[in-house]
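re the bet — no i am not wrong, look at it urself. input seq straight from the record:
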Amino acid sequence: MKVLNKFCELRVLVWVVLLSVWLPGHAQTYPNRPLHIVVGYSAGGGVDAMARLLAPYLSAQLGQQVVIENRAGAAGLIAGDAVAKAAPNGYTLLLGESAMLIAPHLQSNLTFDPIKSFVPIASLFNSPLMIVAGNEVPAKNAKELITLLQAHPGKYSFASPGVGTVQHLSFEMLKKQTGTFVVHVPYRGAAQILPDVIGGQIALGVVSATSAIAQSKAGKLTPIAMMSSVNLPGAENVAPLSDTLPGFSVAPRLMLLAPGGTPSAIVERLSEAVRVTLSNPAVIKSANALGAIPTFMTSAELAIDLARESASWAKIIKDQKISAQ
């Protein structure tokens, strides 16, 4: 019996040694075929452009082709569902965004959990937002605007690309912190907001900073404030809202996510590839031209920040009694 026990112990030891040799070697073979990054919007849009900016640089870092796969629909939720159900092997990834973190607090029928269904790989970009005003609005900066809105509750309206967008909720945060009442006018997307602000159809808008820079420099509208502190070329003279409301900072973000259960060695490999890519001056320059700021965070850092952001959206939706329409 003692001989048998010794034999069993020896077999177990041999298997442990073999596994310890095989597992690191197996992890080192990743990736050995093309990777797919799933984007929840059509080709040619802003989110798609950011994915296609990243792809060749990540390919160079990983030694494999990175393919962009567009699965448009439901504000990115169709793509999220597909990746949440994909094999956790590092070959199917999601270009996630802030809208995905907002959705659970406005919808009850999501087929995945934006936090629990994924493993964060790395944060990618923030897209700075700007509050703009028509030239007829008697306010030229954040302090003057807040004073104006406090003195005239309900007189002014602001436009966003829709209910529950980052643009909408960021202005709701401003209203909550300043005790102001401003009517929200949801648009079907962002394209018509700037023309309507310039034309005087609506007083205020929350828009991409890049889209507003040229119009503000031409004197067609007033750049009131940046929603976050950023270093975006062309917007250096527009003060962040945090100068008036300390701590205020909101910007739509993009991040790279993997299906839940993806091995940590693969996550670390991908995260490092992202870090190197985002430090490339050519990537920084191209991202800035598209209105985005590279903002790398590790997997662990991003996991903490996503939980914080999700809780922040939940609070403002509850406090301002916002519901999906």
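see?? Confidence is low (pLDDT under 50) at residues 1-8, 12-26. told u. also The radius of gyration is 23 Å. so pay up
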